[in-house]
Structure formats: C-alpha cells, structure tokens
Amino acid sequence: IENESRVLLAQKVFSWGKNDSNQLGLNKSGNQLSPVEVQLLKNKSIVYVQGGGDFGLAYSRSGQYFSFGSN
Q1: Region at 70 (left for phi over 0; alpha for psi -120 to 50; beta for the rest)
Q2: Overall pTM surpassing 0.85 (yes/no)
C-alpha cells in the first residue's frame, strides 16, 4: 500500500503512507508512518475518501468535494 485514507464513524479522516505530493492532505510533504487526522477536512462531515498514487479526494455530506496532492 502506497498511501491510505479512512473515514471513521465520527466522520474524521485519517491518512498515512507515501506523501511526496501532499496526497494525504496534511499540508506538508514527507511520508507519514502512522495515521494522523487530516485537519483540512476537520468539521466537514466527510462521508467518502479515495486516493490515487499522488492525489486524494474527499466528498462531504453537504456535497462539497475536496482534493489534494497532484491533481
């Protein structure tokens, strides 16, 4: 697994793994070895996340899309 993101029941998003293009949405580059909450998505009621090799996408309950990394 290159990188990973998960939405928890509390609608918080955590991501970890390869992060050379800020594809984890952490506002910094550099690999993340353990799960950390994505502050950009805090209080956004995220219901779905999807990532690719160098990008990440999130969709909120209110219909907003968020993207980060090389997109």
Answers
A1: beta
A2: no
